[in-house]
Amino acid sequence: MFSRKREGAKHVRAADAPPSKALAKSLAADGGAPAPEFGPWDAKHAPDDVQRLDLGSLQIPAIEGVEVRVQANPDGAVEQIVLVDGESALQIGVFAAPKTEGIWGEVREEIATAMTADGVDAREVDGRYGIELIARVNTPDGPADVRFVGVDGPRWMVRALFQGAAAADRSKEGVLGDALEGMVVVRDEEPRPVREPLPLRLPAEMAEQNAEQNPAQQV
């Protein structure tokens, strides 16, 4: 439901989609104003007294009760990140974006359009980070609630997908909400097409475990 269009990178103009609160605060901070009150943080604003799992372009705070499940290919490149707490899950993606324009509005519209085409009723609601998208989708295990949250930052966008109890009731985010607001995006200086996934990698110890589990893939 979220992919780059074949005709090339497209993004909205600033007049079409004003920066999110997080992006606006981040841009203001570049001019000397206070940094954002909470994350996901751009690396230059992140508190330095927090233990985090370093996945390259994304760092996830170590929070008791949050299980971090990382799916990677045999080379150690991370393909999926899911945080789990009880009956709730949070899937995270981080993508390239323009420095001064948010793309979550356009991405959200495309997700809603795809859901509607599948016969799913997707609704927009106000949330902590701005407009969110909620829906009830059909799964092999029956109907399930999902909630998409987008955060625009300087040259990046975080897309968060809540599932389970935290999707049906925002007040039940608990530690998953804490994990989201404590994440740090480390955007490299490489020019990248808008919406291209930022590079993620396994930490050294996890990469070693991955190599041991896939010996046939090693050169």
| Average predicted local confidence, pLDDT | 84
Fraction of residues in H or I helices:
10-25%
How far apart, in Å, are the first and last alpha carbons? Answer: 35 Å
Give the H and E element order: HEEEEEEHEEEEHHEH
Annotation, overall tally of beta strands? 11
> Tell me about the biggest sheet?
7 strands, antiparallel
Name the poorly predicted regions. Answer: 1-18
Output the number of helix runs.
5
Structural class, by secondary structure, is alpha+beta
Word description of this protein:
With 219 residues, the protein is of the alpha+beta class. Helices cover 21% and strands 32% of the residues. The chain is built from 5 helices and 11 strands. The chain has helices spanning 21-30, 104-117, 165-168, 175-181, 204-213, and strands at 41-42, 52-54, 58-61, 67-72, 78-85, 88-96, 123-127, 130-139, 142-153, 156-164, 184-185. The strands form 2 sheets. Strands 4-5-6-10-9-8-7 form a 7-stranded antiparallel sheet, sandwiched between helices. A hairpin with a 2-residue loop joins strand 5 (78-85) and strand 6 (88-96). The protein starts with 20 loop residues before the first helix and ends in a 6-residue tail after the last helix.
List keywords for this structure.
single chain, 219 residues, alpha+beta, seven-stranded antiparallel β-sheet, four-stranded mixed β-sheet, 5 helices, 11 strands, 21% helix, globular, disordered N terminus
Task: Briefly say what this structure is.
The chain has a 7-stranded antiparallel beta sheet with strand order 4-5-6-10-9-8-7, sandwiched between helices.
